[in-house]
């Protein structure tokens, strides 16, 4: 699995970073999403799905690679 984030779509709500802070952060410049670990460990997939579902701008995807 791989996390894909589109910072152009991100509105900087921070839901991803609040939900899974070990995998997501926010840019210091504009608050948009920063993916810390694009290939999350298997035990964190459910948490990533939660973050994807909470993203109000739909800037996140979890891709089956």
Automatic annotation (TrEMBL):
GO molecular function, one term: 3 iron, 4 sulfur cluster binding
Cofactor(s) demanded: [3Fe-4S] cluster
Protein keywords: 3Fe-4S, Electron transport, Iron, Iron-sulfur, Metal-binding, Transport
4Fe-4S ferredoxin-type domain ranges (all copies): 1-29
Job of this protein: Ferredoxins are iron-sulfur proteins that transfer electrons in a wide variety of metabolic reactions.
PANTHER family associated with the record: FERREDOXIN (PTHR36923:SF3)
Protein name as catalogued: Ferredoxin
Lineage, opening ranks: Bacteria, Bacillati, Actinomycetota, Actinomycetes, Kitasatosporales
């Amino acid at each position: 699995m791989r996390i894909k984030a589109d910072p152009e779509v991100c509105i900087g709500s921070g839901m991803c970073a609040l939900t899974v802070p070990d995998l997501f952060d926010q840019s210091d410049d504009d608050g948009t999403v920063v993916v810390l670990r694009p290939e999350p460990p298997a035990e964190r997939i459910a948490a990533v799905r939660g973050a994807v579902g909470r993203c109000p701008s739909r800037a996140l995807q979890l891709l089956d690679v």
